[in-house]
Amino acid sequence: MIGIFGNGEIAKVFAHYQTPTFFTVDKEFNTGPLLGLPVVDFDKDKLYPQIDENGIILNTVSPSAALFLFPISYTKLNSLRKEKLLQAKEWGLNIGSYIDTTVKRFYNIAVGEGSIVLDGCTINPLVQLGKGVICWSNAHVGHSSILEDFVWVPLMLLFVVNVQ
């Protein structure tokens, strides 16, 4: 069971990379189903829905049954992604990472919790991606670079080598 935080354009796009079971947003932004899937309030008492074949939320299930992804854009200079990911972690939710199968990467890289690397990216040897990093399509991170926590790497950006 996979939950994606958000109901905007980035969440819709990301749902084509990693198929969710449901979306979750803060209650005041919940406008109902998205892409035919339920949207659940981001509230520790309402998360982990059990959903029937018609998309009806039946009840809650164990926290270990869902994996949460946070493809939140650079809103508020990445602080919103940081806030929501850390809140989810505090609640004991399972935080997932996603690396697209088309990413060219080497075995000796470190990818932090909650990071997302989309299609066509190149991640060279000895790279360290912090927590909550998003590398959008076709970005290139050169060898020995360190991207700190909650960084957004935009489309086709090139970090040459040893960038911190």
Brief description of this entry?
With 164 residues, this protein is α/β, with parallel strands linked by helices.
Folded structure, characterized:
- This protein is α/β, with parallel strands linked by helices and about 160 residues long.
- It has 2 domains: about 1-95, Rossmann fold, CATH 3.40.50; about 100-160, no CATH class.
- The chain has 2 helices and 18 strands.
- The chain has helices at about 10-15, 80-90, and strands at about 1-5, 20-25, 40, 50, 55-60, 65-70, 95, 100, 105, 110, 115, 120-125, 130, 135, 140, 145, 150-155, 160.
- The strands form 5 sheets. A 5-stranded parallel beta sheet has the order 3-2-1-6-7, with helices on one face.
- Helix 2 links the parallel strand 6 and strand 7.
- The longest helix has 12 residues, at about 80-90.
- The radius of gyration is 16 Å and the shape is elongated.
- The chain starts with a strand and ends in a 5-residue tail after the last strand.
Salient structural properties:
four-stranded parallel β-sheet, alpha/beta, 2 domains, single chain, 164 residues
Radius of gyration: 16 Å
- The secondary-structure class comes to alpha/beta
CATH class of the largest domain: Alpha Beta
If helices are DSSP runs of H or I spanning 4 or more residues, what is the number of helices? 2
Assign the CATH architecture of the largest domain: 3-Layer(aba) Sandwich
Q: How many domains would you count in the coordinates?
A: 2
User: Which range does the strand content fall in?
Assistant: 25-35%
Biggest beta sheet summary: 5 strands, parallel
CA distance, first residue to last residue: 35 Å
Overall pLDDT score: 87
Instruction: Report the uncertain regions.
Output: none
The share of residues in helices is 10-25%
The run of helices and strands is: EHEEEEEHEEEEEEEEEEEE
